[in-house]
Amino acid sequence: PAITATATPSPAQTMLTALNAAILKLSGAVNTSVSFNGQSYSKGDLSKLNEQQRTEYYMRLCSSIGLNPMTQPFQYLTLNGRLVLYARRDCADQLRKINGISIQIVSQDKSDGLLSIHVKATDRDGRADEDLGVVSFPDTLKGDAAANAILKAVTKAKRRVTLSLSGLGFLDETEVADIPEQRFVAAVRLA
User: Fold this and answer.
1) In which residue ranges of the chain is pLDDT below 70?
2) In terms of pTM, does the model score above 0.90?
3) Three-state DSSP class for 51?
4) Residues 71, 72, 77, CA angle at the centre, nearest 5°?
5) β-bridge pairing 82-87 and 114-122
6) Over the range 24-52, which residues count as b (16 or more CB within 10 Å of their CB) and which as e?
7) Radius of gyration of the chain measured on its C-alpha atoms
């Protein structure tokens, strides 16, 4: 006979479950002061929410995954005609602390005008994930510009792996900077 073990969910799984529950609750909100358009969210477009609803959505999202909204871990962004949230540095920093995520640089490679940083992250439960941060790095790049490109690649890799290991599929701010046709939207008013 097969032996079955009941595994305790990791903090990242618990957080993802809470996030999904919050989204489901918001998309079908009944008897709440703020109702959210489920179709709008299912398409990844939050533009149909008014300012008050965006603030409420933002606050609930932060609460559901344990982030401090006062540090503005997310920013609204119009991207390809859709209003979406992207994760800022504060988001990844807080997620690393909440989930006990440590990161190691596995390798780096400079070829074909690109710098690639490969990182591995492990959370406190031993779950691991790996990701890359890649930036343009032409041979003509020197001095401070080269140093900044290296830091950008490391930062991009760390944030990508943090968001992935935490079960969040948000763009991070290092990715947003490389996307044409983007427009930032006014910050959420918290008070």
Assistant:
1) 1-44, 171-191
2) no
3) helix
4) 165
5) unpaired
6) eebeebeeeebebbeebbeeebbeebeee
7) 19
* C-alpha dist (Å) from residue 8 to 5, 13, 123, 129, 145: 10, 10, 14, 19, 46
Q: Give the dihedral of Cα atoms 34, 37, 43, 47; nearest 10 deg.
A: -60
pLDDT tens digit string along 76-97?
888 878 888 888 889 999 999 9
pLDDT value, residue 18: 54
Tokens of 64: 């559901």
Question: What is the rounded CA–CA span in Å between residue 107 and residue 116?
Answer: 8
Nearest Cα neighbor of 88 from 76, 100, 101, 103 is 76
> What does the pLDDT read at residue 32?
27
CB 32 within 8 A of CB 50: no
Orientation angle between helical segments 89-99 and 11-27, nearest 10 degrees: 130
How many Cβ atoms are within 10 Å of 72's Cβ, its own excluded? 17
Phi, psi angle pair for 18, to nearest 5°: -65, -40
Residue 96 tokens read as 């690393």
Backbone φ, ψ for residue 21 (5° rounding) = -65, -40
Token duo for residue 139: 């041979």
